[in-house]
Amino acid sequence: MHELAIADSVVHVASRHANGRRVTKVCLKVGHLRQVVPSALAFSFELVAQGTPVEGAELEMEEVPATGKCRKCGVESRLQSFPLQCAACDSLDLELIAGEELYVESLVMEETQELTADS
Ligand SMILES: [Zn+2]
Prior knowledge:
2 helices, alpha+beta, hypothetical protein PF0899 fold, binds zinc ion, single chain, elongated
């Protein structure tokens, strides 16, 4: 259940950036290789966010496909499964260039400067 640990750090980061404001939406980039179960992460997030400025915020996850660059022919392949293999020359000697991301890409916060009713 590593989703709980991830949710914990996401809420931490979001709360810190919120700076007293309420967070309404958190956009996450999640690399395919992190093998995060989205439903488990969403559940953990909701749990951990309770009592923080992030409580009730929407969690949006964008998955980043795993991508490797072949050390032999230089072709970049999108990797679907293990083993990671070059689509052009079948080499297994790939350098991973994407797919291990895991970070908060953006936050949407509630506007606290509410205009006072006129008149
Ligand atoms: Zn290759």
